[in-house]
């Protein structure tokens, strides 16, 4: 089945979800543990989205969130890949760097917010830092796993042919680990959006997360869903962009995917 032939099923799935949402919200469906009594209908959400587009608020919210995400994400990509290569290739780096990173990894983004506010002189830098921490660990761990998964026989063969450490890293390790690194970069982009929205809800004055939280506090329920959908679309689009760019750098691996 080609990608083109798969699109009707995908669109039908989205349409079914929208239809269920419309029926459940308009009929105020109450399932006991789950109720749609106060959930706005897709029509109300569409009206709120159009009102946001016509207002002067959309562009500041979008630019603020995008700038924070990409500042934190790009920093995490550089640090995560470099640390992952070092940890994956060096036992000394693994023993000295990985234990403290593993202690920090399970800490959720919201737990970093008070400390980030104390450490950084501005709320903008603290939000970028939280985005950085969210993206760092998926990138780091996938890079480590990708490096460790490289066939040792390839490294030994390159070394027997006279290749030095930099040549082995450039010609053997990086090509072998790149698919895993790309996966980590795509996951990191998604988690960076999650962490940014959490930070903006508490520390932001502009941004999609701030818009969503403000809509909740003033009980504008359609606007809450507009903010949620914007976050989902931006996260999906940016992760897709990362995967697309990764595919351009790994043409030998892209061909293994499902048709």
UniProtKB/TrEMBL annotation:
Annotated ABC transmembrane type-1 domain residues: 62-242
Keywords associated with the record: Cell membrane, Membrane, Transmembrane, Transmembrane helix, Transport
Xref: InterPro entries: MetI-like (IPR000515), MetI-like_sf (IPR035906)
The keyword Transport belongs to this UniProt entry's keyword annotation: yes
Membrane spanning residue stretches: 36-53, 65-88, 103-120, 127-147, 225-246
Record keyword Glycoprotein present: no
Compartments (UniProt record): Cell membrane
Topological relation to the membrane, as annotated: Multi-pass membrane protein
PROSITE patterns in alphabetical order: ABC_TM1
Gene3D superfamilies: MetI-like (1.10.3720.10)
Annotated PANTHER family: ABC TRANSPORTER PERMEASE PROTEIN MJ0413-RELATED, ALKANE SULFONATE ABC TRANSPORTER-RELATED, MEMBRANE SUBUNIT
Homology family: Belongs to the binding-protein-dependent transport system permease family.
Name listed for the protein in its UniProt record: ABC transporter permease
Organism name: Pseudomonas schmalbachii
Classification lineage: Bacteria, Pseudomonadati, Pseudomonadota, Gammaproteobacteria, Pseudomonadales
